[in-house]
Amino acid sequence: AQVDGKPVVCKWSQYADIAQHPLRSATKAEKILYIKVPKTGSSTVSSLLWRYARRHDMRMLKLASVHSEDEAVQAMSDANFDEVDVLASHLRYDTRMVGKFLGGSAFRIASVRDPLSRLYSAFGYAWERHVKRPGKGSWVCEKKVEDFRKWASDCTLRSQQDYMAPLDWRERDRLDLDKVVEHYDHFMVTELMTESMIVLASKIDMTLAELLLLSKKTESGGYLEDNVPVEDREEFKRLLAERGRYDSSILIDAQLHKRAAAILQSEFEGLPEKVRNMAADLKLMTEEVNEACAEDRSTPTLSDTNECVVEWVSRNV
Question: Which of 120, 126, 118 is nearest to 160 (CA)?
């Protein structure tokens, strides 16, 4: 590589052959549906898909939520789209409504997380909004966060399976988990986010530069553990674990998470050795990118100042 017209040895040159090229000879996804499940890292995945959509000149629509076909049509009109290529939303998964956006079949992605870890993260997020930043809008059970014991026993997040299963599959509130799992082409597993990203990249023609995401979490931990008083964390986790032994929604989500993680692990192990070995280095590269682009980390846009990341890749890979 050259910097200011002078040759330099790039620190991560072993990945130069895949820096601006797909990790494998994958086929570009013509349409993508991403079911955003709150508190599973869905903003990170949306940012990744936004970069992918930009490179492929795809029309991406990111919505907080959509609850009817009329809302879907209005959202399309507001964005001046006659059809969408990439849809990422906390939507009620109605296949007819999704058809209004995507027009046909799509590569389907969903995020999953250990349900107790998800509840723990949700508590931190609610605490952040209610205690540290009051008046910023409401979120699940946020008024109970001052009593973490009551929150741990009473607060209910909408389950992950409830987001992921199409509404027209449901019969008397019973879900076939095997059918739900088979419905998706890829799972992003929060606890295996780096592996999830690499496997996704190998499936839909992504580049290394698109995987180096800037984090919006603060140095104090963002919405996660650091918002739970240190002296209360172990008791809070114990209370959640106790609830996890009898709460049917948590039990089903735990099964879903276990199956999705097993699928992802198998897919990751099937990748070429060089691509697998990149997982640990990708974490290090991401840390370096976040340091190099620190001034841009607070940007509100999904593109996450892609130009800064591209520049870093050109100098270091």
Answer: 118
Which H or E run includes 3?
strand 2-3
Q: Are 176 and 259 in contact (CB under 8 A)?
A: no
Checking if the pLDDT of 297 tops 70, the result is no
Is residue 212 within 8 Å of residue 305, measured between CB atoms?
no
Element (H, E) at 100: helix 95-102
Encode pLDDT of 124-177 as tens digits: 888 777 766 665 556 778 777 778 888 888 888 888 988 888 877 665 456 688
> SS3 breakdown of the chain: % helix, strand, coil, rounded to 5?
55, 10, 35
> What are 74-128's pLDDT values in tens digits?
776 776 666 788 988 877 777 777 777 787 788 999 999 999 999 888 888 887 7
Please work out, in degrees rounded to the nearest 5, the angle formed at the alpha carbon of residue 52 by the alpha carbons of 47 and 56.
145
Rounded to whole angstroms, the Cα distance separating 199 from 190 reads: 13
| Number of helical (H) and strand (E) elements in the chain, helices listed first | 14, 7
DSSP at 83: S
Would you say how long the chain is, in residues?
Answer: 317
Torsion of CA 299, 303, 306, 309, to 10 degrees: 70
* Contact present, 153 and 243 (Cβ < 8 Å): yes
pLDDT grade for 294, boundaries at 50, 70 and 90 = confident
Task: Annotate 255-274 with b (16+ C-beta within 10 A) or e (fewer).
Answer: ebbebbbebbeebbeebeee
Phi, psi of 297 (to 5 degrees): -70, -25
Q: What letter would DSSP give residue 128? A: I
Q: What is the DSSP letter of 224?
A: S
Question: Is the CA virtual torsion 113, 90, 55, 108 positive or negative?
Answer: positive
Strand, coil or helix: 187: strand
CA distances to 79, 102, 103, 216, 316 from 95, in Å: 21, 10, 10, 32, 44
